[in-house]
Amino acid sequence: MFEDDGYVIFRDVIDPALIKEVNDHVEWLQARHPEVRPEQLGHIYLRDDPFWVRLVSDNRLLDIAEQFVGPDLALFASHYISKPPYSGQPVLWHQDAAFWPLDPMEVVTLWLAVDHSTPENGCVRVIPGSHRSGVAGMRENTTVESVLGQEIAVEVDESAAVDMILAPGDVEVHHPNIVHGSNANTSPRRRCGLTIRYIPTSTRITDPETPYPSAFHLRGEPGVNSYQPRPAYDAARHFAFADSDRWT
Fold first, then answer.
1. Domain boundaries, the chain
2. Third-level CATH fold of 2-227
3. H or E element: which one contains 64?
4. C-alpha torsion sign, points 78, 65, 116, 176
5. What are the tens digits of pLDDT across the range 144-157?
6. Of residues 60, 56, 57, the one with CA closest to residue 10
7. pLDDT of residue 58
8. Contact 156, 93 (CB under 8 A)
9. InterPro entries from the xrefs (predicted)?
10. Looking at the predicted structure, is the pLDDT value of residue 219 above 90?
11. Which tens digits make up the pLDDT trace of 51-88?
């Protein structure tokens, strides 16, 4: 299915207790960064966040990523997109590969649902099979306030879109070339998800900032990149979580 459609869904990957911690982590981040829209809690905050590193290192997630990019795994980036009720911004149609400094473009995205994700609150929508058509250019779109501020520079047949309807703990996996996006959240319910971008350690991060802010070696051989050190937990500075004693 992934080869043909460019996406696949795994159900009930993360247990409710950890999802509760993830939800609390999102609220903690928002309180810590009140000047940042909740759709923009991105990878620049990750390097000194033990819980975030603990979450993306979870073996249940790594086991899924390994199916797509192999046993030697690193994190490239991760990003909470938390759309508040009534005012959550859309993500216009795009392809992830149009943005990323990766060579080669061997990477897989795991989208972890923190909330129920439905058409009403702005779930992810994908165009099945669009990953087979190459990577199109991007253009600015200032007619609507959106998460990216850009959109794909080709016509998208929205009648072909499939809604990624997910429950908390579900994971949607997609190809870097698939055309996808999401509508605004005009409902009374928040829609939060965590994107996690895993690369094989043979993929080079070509951004000049070395090491990349969210580059962490997670499994297998370290490969071609330099990585951030795993942050040690400090109760005075960090979000408290269940197994924080392992991160001191």
1. 2-227
2. Jelly Rolls (2.60.120)
3. helix 59-69
4. positive
5. 999 999 999 999 99
6. 60
7. 98
8. yes
9. Phytyl_CoA_dOase-like
10. yes
11. 999 999 999 999 999 999 999 999 999 999 999 999 99
